[in-house]
Structures are given as structure tokens and as C-alpha cells.
Amino acid sequence: MIALQDVHKSFGPNAVLRGVSLEVPKGQSLVVIGGSGSGKSVLLKCILGLEAPDAGRILYEGAPLDARRRGPFLSRFGMLFQGGALFDSLPVWENICFRLLRGPGRLSRSAARERAVDKLARVGLGPDVAERHPAELSGGMQKRVALARAIAADPEVIFFDEPTTGLDPIMAGVINDLIRGIVTDMGATAITITHDMASVRAIADEVAMLHAGKIRWRGPVAAMDAAEDPYLRQFVTGAAEGPIETIR
Ligand SMILES: Nc1ncnc2c1ncn2[C@@H]1O[C@H](COP(=O)(O)OP(=O)(O)OP(=O)(O)O)[C@@H](O)[C@H]1O
Predict the structure, then answer these.
(1) Ligand 1, from 9, 14, 209: best to mutate by most atoms within 8 Å of Cβ?
(2) Gap between the Cα atoms of 96 and 187, Å rounded
(3) Which residue numbers delimit the ABC transporter domain (predicted)?
């Protein structure tokens, strides 16, 4: 459904993506792992059109995702941003339906509020939360609201950018389980980027490891622990010693 073919992206002398090829079939949950600075965010930005690849192609449903097709793609797409990215000045329900309250096919305010309450229930929050402002909520509740916003338009494709950053391990587990349940229920195609191995195990059908600008390893999550690739092994076990160079 989404395919990257030999995608390259440099910033000056810094060659971040050096020929990334990756396919995500419809309904699959792919988690992309890789060290800090390995280019996970740049990869997502290239798919979203926020960065233009220097070379290579990005396909959606078999056709290049060019400027003309990006609008329809984005209308079927939802995203959970790292840190939530909620608007403090708006109540929770307007945050959840921000996009649905705008544009030609926009919902009425009452329909949007109803939709928000429905999505809040899906992430385990009561209708009373709808009228509150993000600043009044705990970090875990804000993450749930951000998740409700990501699924507000019943997207076919969802991106999760570091979904557990800043959460304690228990809340991270709750969010991971919610993400897995939602992706499965909706039959959505999902791409998650994370360093959190607990997220990988909870969310992924397939795992791809980005290293030195390329996909170093790709396989089903169940094959990850037995895989022999030394780079993947070091990442999965969190070992300080190994082939991945770190600045100490
Ligand atoms: N707009 C930009 N201009 C210049 N360099 C950039 C730009 N965006 C990203 N980079 C560089 O690209 C490299 C990859 O960054 P990226 O944010 O994709 O890493 P990441 O894998 O998401 O890291 P982290 O896990 O720490 O978020 C870094 O060296 C970064 O400095």
C-alpha cells in the first residue's frame, strides 16, 4: 500500500537516507527502529511530503505520491505526534476534531463533539474530558487525547511518532496496547517510529531497522529475537558494546 523505492535524502554533506526501500502492505503494522539520528523522522517526513527526497520514489496504492495525490492521501491519514502537539487554547473535543471542523466537507459543531466523545471512549476516557483543556490533563491523558485525534477521521493509514516518549512504563504499556487494539480493529496500515523495544513488541507485525541510511534488517517481530544480525542484536539488547558506533 505504501512503498519506498531507493529513497535518498541528504542535508549538505550529511547523507541521511542512502537508498531506503520498504513496503508496507495494507493492514500491516510496521515499526521502524534505529538509533538517534538514524533518519527515522526524515523517512516519515519524506512520505508526508514535508521533505522532498533527492532520489527514489514513494508509492501509495501503486502510484507515485506526487503533489496531486498527496491531498487525497492526507485526507485518509492520521498521525500521533511525538509530545501530542495539542492546542492548549482549544477544549479537548475541538482538538480531536480540529481537521474535521475545517474544509469543504466539515462537520457541524454538534456532530464533531459527538464524534470526539465517541473517540474518547475508544481510548478509555469519559465524555466529561471533552470540555476540558489539555493543560488540565495528565501526560497519559494527553497522549490518549492525541491518539483520539489521530483516529478522528477513521484513517486508513496512521503514523505514530515515538508514541511512548515521556510516559512511565505502565502508561506506555497502556498506550501501546491501545494502539495495537485500534490498528487491529480499524484494519489500518500503520507505521510507527520508536526506540522503545516494548512498543515494538506490542505494536509491530513487522520490524525494520534503519542504520547507516539503509534498511539493515526487516522481518516479522517474532523473528527479531532470533535474528543474527549484529546491529539488530545490539539494538534489541541495548548493549553498549557492538558494531553500532555511539558517542560516549
Ligand atoms: N531539516 C534538516 N536540516 C538538516 N539536517 C537535518 C534536517 N532534518 C534532519 N536532519 C539530520 O538528519 C539526521 C537524521 O535525523 P532524524 O531526526 O530523522 O533522526 P531520528 O532517527 O528520527 O532520531 P531520533 O530518534 O533522535 O528522533 C540527523 O543527523 C539530523 O541532524
Answers:
(1) 14
(2) 20
(3) 2-237
CA-proximal residue: ligand 1, atom 9 (nearest): 42
Is 244 among the domain residues? no
Q: Is 248 among the domain residues?
A: no
Provide residues with CB under 6 Å of ligand 1: 11, 14, 16, 34, 36-42, 195
What residue's CA is closest to ligand 1, atom 30? 37
What pTM does this model have?
A: 0.91
Determine the structural domain holding residue 62 and report its residue range: 2-237
Q: Domains in the chain: how many in total?
A: 1
Q: Which atom of ligand 1 is nearest to the CA of 38?
A: 21
| Any domain includes 243 | no
CB 164 within 8 A of CB 175: yes
Q: What is the pLDDT of residues 22-66, one digit of tens each?
A: 999 999 999 999 988 899 999 999 998 889 999 999 999 989 988
Quote the CA–CA distance of 7 and 214 in Å, as a whole number: 9
Q: In a mutational test of the pocket of ligand 1, which residue from 16, 44, 165 has the highest number of ligand atoms less than 8 Å from its CB?
A: 16
pLDDT < 50: residue spans in the chain: none
Nearest residue (by CA) to ligand 1, atom 18, is 39
The residues with which 2 forms a beta bridge, in sequence order, are 24, 60
Assembly ipTM? 0.96
In a domain, 155, yes or no: yes
The per-residue b/e assignment along 58-79, b for 16 or more CB within 10 angstroms, e otherwise, is bebeeeebeeeebeebbebbbb
